[in-house]
Amino acid sequence: MPAGHVIVCETEGHWAVTFRAMGGESLPIVQARSLAECRARLYEAPASVLVLELTESRLAEVAALVADLYQFPLARAMVVAARPWQLYERPFRELGCMAFTTSMLQVRALAVAARRRLQRVADPPLGLRERLLARVPGASVR
Questions:
Q1: Which residues partner with 32 through β-bridges?
Q2: For residue 7, what is the enclosing H or E element?
Q3: CA triplet 120, 124, 129: central angle to 5 degrees?
Q4: pLDDT tens readout for residues 96-110
Q5: Are the CB atoms for 99 and 80 separated by under 8 Å?
Q6: In total, how many domains does the chain have?
Q7: Crossing angle of helices 59-67/35-44, nearest 10°?
Q8: How many H helices and E strands in the chain?
Q9: What confidence category does residue 2 fall into, taking pLDDT thresholds of 50, 70 and 90?
Q10: For residue 92, which of 30, 84, 98, 142 sits 20 to 30 Å off, Cα-Cα?
């Protein structure tokens, strides 16, 4: 089971199509049509990047899911929405979103950030101890 995916949770499918087009084949994208399905996918791959569509009917649920991500310390959230929702960027950033956009033109940047995040989780950077031991001939890193 992979550590993480890009889980695109939306009702129509437009954002997922754009993420696939901009992210290329190397970006593991999984679609979810409901927030319940999104949570289930997150339990399967707890180091995922969530792309959550913000709509009037899902405002409270999306906010709750972003706020609950503390339970998944390796997961990150991005929120995508229609232009009228732009004023919600600050509250969602304060909840912990790594990105918020109302423009399909910004999806390439979001895909790059998601790829970078998944790569970082897959290959975590070495800590100070490991970097020092890597320089010592004959030393083994445990």
A1: 9
A2: strand 6-9
A3: 150
A4: 999 999 999 999 999
A5: no
A6: 1
A7: 20
A8: 6, 5
A9: low
A10: 30
